[in-house]
Specification:
The complex is a heterotrimer of chains A (355), B (184) and C (260). Chain A is α/β, with parallel strands linked by helices and 355 residues long. Chain A has helices spanning 9-19, 35-42, 59-71, 82-97, 124-128, 146-163, 173-177, 218-238, 258-273, 291-297, 314-322, 341-353; strands at residues 5-8, 24-27, 52-55, 76-80, 102-108, 139-141, 166-172, 179-182, 210-211, 242-245, 252-255, 278-283, 285-287, 303-307, 327-331. Chain A folds into two domains: 5-185 and 229-236, 3-Layer(aba) Sandwich (Rossmann fold); 242-353, Rossmann fold (3-Layer(aba) Sandwich). Helices cover 40% and strands 19% of the residues of chain A. Helices cover 35% and strands 27% of the residues of chain B. In chain B, helix 1 (15-28) crosses helix 5 (144-154) and helix 4 (127-139) crosses helix 6. The two termini of chain B are 21 Å apart.
């Protein structure tokens, strides 16, 4: 029986990656997530799983090392923060276009540009609406605790390999830097088997394999796009994940993910002390987004406040979900400033209840 | 029970590790805990603070701006956090590290002259444990054996030989903590 | 007809076969322009893989550029990299499949412009991969624009009056840079514009693959090549121009050889 340990979210990702039997980690230091690479390089991996860890010369190189490793059929991981994730977009698009699985963690900081190193949730669009070029989707998981930071590593790999698509864990500097108690799954061995699509050397019993996202013939490209579209439809139907907290009697709803969803839980206590019945809808998958499940809440609640540390990004999906049936607004601090539970209650009163 | 604590001082005073030891002590007694540090350039020789929450329920927000307890280790932190303590809350400060004493009359205030006391120990690094001892004397949150277990979990093994001196420092803190003002 | 002349009927008999296309090349028709050095260099690599018996042990990485479709012609496993990223892709493969042979095949735009960082760092880390660098001083696929290796005075569609240093900077001699990196084990510059040079190039490329099994560092072979279409010359003219203009700036030979 594993016991609880106290760990930062970033460290939990690193330890969970080792436990999940990850084959390779390629990354470049950037605040607030450098603990991942530091933890892995200190973890004496040669005595554990033999997992490969390499500090790349850039995020551009790191994501392409993932491409190579994933093409070889291996479980590969990188972690970064907004500016580095922007540099990786080309590689993410290529991996989606070559149907290669990988896990990418974005420990979000405030932007745009170099921005700040403090926590933010302003990379929601980048992660869920493309980021890179072309028609592709990124499965996006949003943990809200150090335990989920750890648990979503193996979940992310499972989804990545099931659908042969990159998966992103979208978290933030607060969850990356904070410590909570966490219990890890037992060590999984690294897989000795290679998927049938991997380039591992052409043996006489099979045709050569090439991994590419190039289709010079538009008809071929369209056929491939249709195939991808069907895959993304299947993911949208099967992989939506969410959590509802104190929703049974709620008149109003906070919609929030990650750190904001934690703060909203405190806001719920404060609001209920004043007699305001508010609940929390927490999307766990940001893509696929729980449109249907949020729509279902419109029969019960009078309004929804999308609470995000951004200028209002997820709120667009909440609005899409409710089809104007109830009032939807956004509240959030930006620039690395984290909203307080009290500020959120005030915003609920002003923007939804009084509005 | 939920205890929301801010520990604030200079980088290098052991602010973050004091928080970690508190958390691990809580884990040893089956509590929920969270440890949320300030991070960034201000860590490099500037101010450091950590929010610690201990609770027997699931912890909602790890980020808060009012506290049951503030453990204050320098003047900037006193200026910043004195007003953030909930009425009826607790303020413990290092008497050697501040020039302006606290003025609130709706909280309980204690003083530990930990900087001075630490110079009398084998190592001045025990400073934060003297403060911790003072806090544990007032709050009586954990059994001492849980704190010692927490220390063991928090310290890398190469520092385990320093556990006895740290325990000694905790006891010293319990002895020297002084009541400044309390509300009935 | 002379006494010892061979008849056509005899000529096609199997026992008189002196040369055939390696089975490591597929039957796909290459898209390269007539006279282009890519086809020759592809054949050399395929022959070497066959001779070494490593078809099941090799994974190649194709670039973006004229040779973007290289994976169509090679009868072994390949990955297609984003522009300039082949050394990073190859690093990922080799680190996770260290027992395999891994190589990149890149043009001058890919290796020496957009991918300079990946090239330098892979070579400096001493990744145990082989890198084949085709340098024809021009961007062929996009229609003849200036490359980092375009010579001073050389015309391209973006240096229509000839490359002028004050405007377009200097040609980059990548291999001379690479040879100084401690991570490289074998560095050579060859060409494929004459049969003799083809034979020398094959020797060098074969060494660059054989040395990979020693795990001693990066093996790097530049192949100075032509681009009849981009240079707006016939294949014969382009080979002559290569000898007279490219080779003085990019002189042939081994630049770094292991101590025996």
């Amino acid at each position: 029986m594993e016991e609880y340990v106290l760990m930062k979210g970033n460290e939990a990702i690193a330890e969970a990656a080792i436990r999940a039997g990850t084959d390779g980690y390629f990354g470049y230091p950037i605040t607030p997530q450098s603990e991942v690479l530091e933890y892995l390089t200190a973890a004496r991996l040669h005595e554990r799983t033999g997992m490969v860890v390499l500090q790349a010369e850039s995020e551009v190189a790191a994501i392409n090392m993932l491409y190579g490793g994933a093409g070889a059929g291996k479980k590969v991981l990188t972690t970064s923060s907004g500016p580095g994730i922007s540099l990786m977009q080309e590689g993410i698009s290529y991996m989606a276009g070559s149907e290669l699985p990988c896990l990418i963690v974005n420990v979000v900081r405030g932007g745009p540009g170099l921005g700040t190193i403090q926590p933010a949730q302003s990379d929601y669009f980048q992660s869920t609406k493309g980021g890179g070029h072309g028609d592709y989707r990124l499965i996006t998981l949003a943990p809200a605790s150090v335990q989920e930071m750890a648990d979503f590593v193996s979940l992310g790999f499972d989804l990545a390999f099931k659908y042969r698509n990159p998966v992103m864990i979208l978290t933030d500097g607060a969850l990356g830097q904070m410590m909570e108690k966490v219990k890890f799954k037992p060590q999984q061995p690294r897989s000795k088997k290679s998927p049938h699509w991997a380039t591992t050397g052409k043996t006489p019993d099979r045709e050569r394999i090439f991994i590419t996202s190039l289709n010079l013939d538009p008809a071929c490209q369209e056929r491939f796009n249709i195939k991808l579209k069907a895959k993304y439809k299947e993911i949208s139907e099967k992989e939506v994940r969410y959590e509802k907290i104190e929703c049974d009697d709620a008149d109003y709803l906070f919609v929030a993910y990650g750190t904001s969803s934690r703060i909203c839980q405190k806001s719920i206590q404060l609001a209920r002390n004043e007699g305001i019945k508010v609940g929390l809808f927490r999307p766990i998958t940001l893509w696929p987004f729980p449109y249907k499940e949020i729509m279902e809440m419109t029969g019960q609640v009078k309004g929804m406040l999308s609470v995000e540390m951004s200028a209002g990004q997820m709120v667009e999906d909440v609005k899409l979900a409710v089809e104007a049936k109830v009032k939807v607004d956004h509240y959030g601090r930006m620039g690395g400033i984290v909203h307080s539970p009290e500020e959120i209650v005030k915003a609920l009163k002003q923007k939804i209840i009084g509005g | 029970m939920t205890e929301e604590i801010i520990i604030a001082g200079f980088g290098g005073q052991g602010v973050l590790s004091m928080g970690k030891i508190l958390c691990y002590s809580g884990v040893m007694e089956g509590q929920e805990v969270s440890w949320m540090p300030s991070y960034g350039p201000e860590m490099r020789g500037g101010t450091a603070n950590v929010t610690v929450i201990l609770s027997d329920k699931m912890i909602s927000s790890p980020i808060i701006n009012t506290y049951d307890t503030a453990i204050i280790l320098n003047q900037q932190s006193m200026d910043k956090f004195e007003s953030a303590i909930k009425p009826g809350g607790l303020l413990i400060y290092d008497g050697n590290s501040i020039i302006r004493h606290p003025e609130r009359d709706d909280i309980n205030i204690y003083r530990v002259d930990a900087t001075e006391e630490a110079t009398k120990m084998e190592t001045t690094k025990t400073f934060n444990m003297i403060m911790l001892g003072g806090y544990l004397k007032v709050k009586k949150l954990f059994k001492l054996e849980s704190v010692i277990k927490g220390l063991k979990k928090s310290l890398p093994e190469r520092y385990h030989h320093l556990i006895p001196v740290n325990v000694k420092a905790i006891h010293r803190g319990m002895e020297i903590i002084k009541e400044v003002a309390t509300i009935s | 007809m002379a006494e010892n002349a061979i008849t056509t009927k005899e000529l096609v008999k199997k026992e008189n076969l002196v040369y055939q296309k390696t089975k490591l090349l597929t039957d796909d028709v290459m898209h390269y322009c007539p006279g282009c050095g890519h086809g020759t260099t592809h054949r050399l690599i395929a022959e070497i893989v066959e001779e070494m018996g490593i078809q099941s042990e090799i994974i190649g990485v194709a670039p973006v550029g004229c040779s973007v479709l290289m994976y169509n012609y090679m009868n072994f496993d390949m990955q297609e990299a984003a522009h300039g990223r082949a050394p990073a892709v190859a690093t990922g493969i080799k680190r996770l499949l260290p027992e395999k042979y891994v190589f990149t095949y890149q043009g001058d735009g890919d290796l020496a412009a957009i991918g300079t960082g990946e090239t330098i760092h892979a070579c400096n880390r001493g990744e145990n991969i082989t890198m084949i660098f085709i340098n024809n001083g021009i961007y062929g696929m996009t229609g003849g624009q200036m490359a980092p290796t375009t010579l001073i005075g050389m015309k391209s569609s973006t240096t229509p009056y000839g490359r002028e240093v004050s405007l377009a900077g200097n040609p980059l001699n990548m291999t001379d840079l690479i040879v100084n990196l401690p991570g490289t084990y074998f560095v050579s510059r060859q060409s494929v514009h004459t049969p003799g040079n083809v034979r020398k190039a094959k020797k060098a490329i074969k060494k660059a693959f054989e040395y990979q099994s020693l795990n001693k560092g990066t093996c790097f072979v530049e192949v100075v090549s032509n681009c009849p279409a981009g240079w707006k010359m016939t294949p014969v003219e382009s080979n002559k121009w290569l000898a007279e203009n490219m080779l003085p700036f990019y002189p042939l030979g081994d630049l770094k050889v292991p101590e025996e």
